[in-house]
């Protein structure tokens, strides 16, 4: 019986780490502009699909992954250049709607440029499952969990210890004051979109051996990642991870002990309860509105 | 075979005569994009390929074929709109299409009212049961898949079966049919789990199945990436009971996705998947090998049974027109209903007034994955 519980926990951690990785991408752009980038799931898709197609063209995996991240970053920059910048001065809601449009466009392009089939990437270090207390874990899950931890640390360092990161935070707190201090809002937007596109693509590559990838994989992953980011507290890196892991664990324990048919409903009901009690999310409540 | 002699005869007819007459219009609405694109995409390609080929061979009844095709995106509402356009504006002679059961059922009232022969490419039993005057279908039904799987399970001594299915329309329909027919085969369903459309991990559900008492075999009803993830998780958990998949993942892609985990998985499917390894004595071999080669050389992509359904649909419609000697809708419908012994990619089709699908259990082959390829089981 306890082996069963361990298995549910491991399953939850695997799925949770995937959600956390996607949720992290939402944080950066949100921190820079308070925009929720609904094309984040599409960056995840581009990472996986581009790697699969570069692999198919004969590139070795590390090179293919690198090229895919570069491609996604370019697309992220182009998104700022051609969609967000021309709408300068528009409200946050308008910008969010623009990202929804961009998501639909990117999905459509992917289905034409690549194809509508499902692709798999090889696992980075084999498929031999790891046994832990009678339960099993795929080695790729360790990659996902490990890289997520690394990224959280790197993001913390970036936002708290570097001038560029602090500039991004400054813009998010008060755009006008930041501009008066000589921070280029334009550059902050470029950097944040580029970074989160790269991060999304990296996530897409890491999870593709587990979840597979296809032109429309971004929809569900984006949604779950968004839910995780909200649960953890929008904009907070550790919050995104906590939110992702919580969501994953809720789903697997819900499926295991209650009913697999209602596991999504169980998870979302609990998220609603949390948000009613803590509107800022698990780790986001401390931010205060400045007048 | 009759078709082929007819093509030869048509070749002899003068091109000018063929040109002078208006083309025969084949209408289609398919899920070329959207979540069911893996059905609609090969179906669309197949229809284009074979309309071209038939035209190159002189057409039918001395007339050219013209394909009028719309992309429904798998959306029943759009399918209805396009079917209306096909009937009222494009005035097609026959409709071949409907990648999913949802699209097909949305269109049924329209074709029934307008009186247009309609060959559906979707799976569920409800399409032809009860029989609808103008509606036919080419793919096997999910109930046949359940029957075939349960017969095979019994033969291997398994009677306590666990079910795991997705939450899509196909998955739900097949789950329902399997629950319905299980008793007829003396099969006990001891666990019944589900997973969501975008789920990335099914180990929780499978752990529950593994711990259910006395499970002797597991059946996964679903299509898309879900069954491949189930298969991977199944091996990761080290479950030893035989795993059965549905005909919904009957393509090489499933093996590519699930990799080594797919070894030993069984599923019922049309002979198309093992075309080359069929014995030469098999009456279906010629048809499936020809289709497979034509499709793969043209599109450089593995053939799937879904494209085969479109091939069967088009060929049945053309055969009916040849038999009827005209494109008169009533005559074509009657001819469709009288088709006997037509050999398609799905199996032998014997239509009747009571059966608008015409396939029996022999149309399904039980396949097993061995060394990364499909082989005939046993």
Number of helices of chain B: 13
Biggest beta sheet summary of chain B: 5 strands, parallel
H/E element sequence of chain A: HHHHEEHHHHHHH
Shape of chain B: globular
In N-to-C order, the SSE pattern of chain B is HHEHEHEHEEHEHEHEHEHEHHHEEEE
What can be said about the biggest beta sheet of chain A? 2 strands, antiparallel
- The percent range for helix content of chain A is over 70%
Rg from alpha-carbon coordinates of chain A:
19 Å
Q: Supply Rg of chain B.
A: 21 Å
Structure description:
The complex is a heterodimer of chains A (291) and B (378). Chain A is an all-alpha fold. Helices cover 74% and strands 2% of the residues of chain A. Chain A has eleven helices and two strands, in the order ααααββααααααα. Chain A has helices at 2-33, 40-56, 61-84, 92-113, 139-161, 163-173, 175-180, 185-211, 217-232, 237-258, 263-277, and strands at residues 130-132, 135-137. Chain A has a two-stranded antiparallel ribbon. In chain A, a hairpin with a 2-residue loop joins β1 (130-132) and β2 (135-137). In chain A, α1 crosses α9 (217-232), α2 (40-56) packs across α8 (185-211) and α2 (40-56) packs across α9 (217-232). The radius of gyration of chain A is 19 Å and the shape is globular. The relative contact order of chain A is 0.21. The mean pLDDT of chain A is 87. Chain B is α/β, with parallel strands linked by helices and 378 residues long. Chain B has helices at 2-12, 15-20, 37-56, 76-88, 101-114, 142-155, 169-182, 203-211, 226-236, 252-258, 285-299, 305-324, 329-337; strands spanning 24-30, 65-71, 94-97, 118-120, 135-137, 160-165, 188-194, 217-221, 243-245, 266-269, 342-343, 348-349, 365-370, 373-376. In chain B, the strands form four sheets. Chain B has a five-stranded parallel β-sheet with strand order 2-1-3-4-5, sandwiched between helices. In chain B, strands 7-6-8-9 form a four-stranded parallel β-sheet. A three-stranded antiparallel β-sheet of chain B has the order 10-13-14. In chain B, α9 crosses α10 (252-258). The mean pLDDT of chain B is 89.
């Amino acid at each position: 019986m306890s082996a069963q519980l361990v298995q549910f926990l491991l399953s939850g951690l695997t799925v949770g780490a995937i959600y956390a990785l996607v949720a992290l991408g939402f944080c950066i752009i949100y921190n820079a502009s308070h925009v929720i980038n609904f094309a984040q799931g599409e960056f995840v898709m581009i990472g996986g699909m581009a790697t699969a197609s570069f692999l198919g063209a004969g590139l070795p995996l590390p090179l293919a992954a690198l090229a895919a991240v570069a491609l996604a970053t370019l697309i992220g920059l182009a998104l700022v250049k051609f969609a967000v910048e021309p709408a300068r001065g528009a409200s946050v809601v308008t910008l969010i709607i623009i990202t929804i449009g961009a998501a639909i466009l990117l999905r459509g392009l992917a289905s034409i440029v690549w194809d509508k089939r499902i692709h798999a990437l090889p696992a980075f270090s084999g498929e031999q499952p790891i046994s832990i207390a009678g339960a099993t874990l795929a080695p790729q899950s360790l990659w996902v969990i490990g890289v997520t931890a690394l990224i959280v640390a790197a993001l913390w360092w970036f936002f708290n210890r570097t001038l560029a990161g602090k500039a991004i935070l400054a813009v998010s707190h008060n755009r006008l004051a930041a501009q008066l201090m000589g921070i280029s809002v334009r550059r902050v937007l470029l950097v944040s979109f580029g970074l989160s596109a790269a991060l999304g693509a990296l996530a897409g590559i890491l999870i593709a051996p587990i979840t597979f990838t296809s032109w429309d994989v971004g929809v569900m992953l984006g949604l779950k990642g968004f839910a995780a980011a909200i649960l953890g507290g929008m904009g907070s890196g550790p919050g995104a991870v906590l939110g992702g892991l919580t969501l994953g664990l809720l789903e697997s324990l819900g499926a295991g002990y209650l009913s697999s048919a209602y596991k999504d409903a169980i998870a979302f009901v609990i998220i609603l309860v949390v948000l009613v009690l803590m509107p800022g999310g698990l780790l986001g409540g401390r931010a205060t509105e400045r007048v | 075979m009759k078709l082929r002699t007819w093509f030869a005869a048509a070749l002899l007819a003068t091109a000018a005569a063929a040109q002078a007459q208006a083309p025969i219009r084949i209408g289609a609405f398919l899920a070329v994009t959207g979540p069911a694109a893996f059905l609609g995409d090969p179906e669309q390609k197949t229809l284009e390929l074979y309309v071209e080929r038939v035209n190159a061979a002189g057409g039918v009844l001395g007339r050219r074929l013209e394909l009028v095709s719309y992309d429904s995106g798998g959306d029943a509402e759009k399918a209805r709109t396009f079917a209306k356009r096909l009937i009222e504006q494009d005035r097609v002679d026959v409709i071949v299409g409907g990648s999913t059961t949802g699209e097909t059922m949305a269109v049924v009232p329209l074709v029934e009212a307008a009186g247009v022969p309609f060959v559906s490419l979707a799976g569920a039993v409800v399409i032809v049961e009860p029989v609808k005057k103008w509606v036919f279908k080419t793919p096997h039904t999910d109930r046949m898949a359940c029957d075939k799987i349960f017969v095979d399970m019994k033969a291997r001594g398994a009677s306590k079966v666990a079910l795991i299915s997705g939450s899509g329309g196909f998955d739900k329909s097949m789950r329902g049919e399997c629950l319905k027919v299980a008793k007829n085969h003396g099969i006990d369903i001891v666990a019944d789990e589900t997973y969501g459309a975008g789920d990335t991990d099914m180990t929780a559900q499978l752990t529950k199945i593994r711990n259910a008492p006395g499970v002797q075999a597991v059946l996964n009803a679903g299509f898309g990436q879900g069954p491949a993830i189930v298969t991977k998780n199944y091996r990761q958990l080290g479950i030893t009971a035989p795993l059965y998949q549905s005909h919904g993942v009957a393509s090489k892609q499933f093996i590519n996705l699930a990799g080594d985990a797919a070894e030993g998985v069984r599923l019922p499917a049309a002979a198309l998947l093992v075309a080359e390894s069929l014995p030469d004595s098999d009456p279906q071999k010629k048809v499936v090998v020809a289709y497979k080669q034509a499709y793969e050389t043209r599109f450089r992509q593995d053939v799937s049974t879904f494209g085969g359904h479109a091939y069967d649909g088009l060929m049945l419609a053309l055969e009916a027109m040849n038999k009827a000697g005209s494109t008169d809708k009533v005559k074509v419908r009657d001819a469709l209903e009288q088709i006997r012994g037509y050999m398609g990619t799905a199996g032998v089709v014997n239509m009747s007034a009571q059966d608008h699908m015409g396939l029996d259990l022999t149309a399904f082959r039980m396949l097993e994955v061995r060394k990364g390829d499909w082989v005939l089981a046993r």
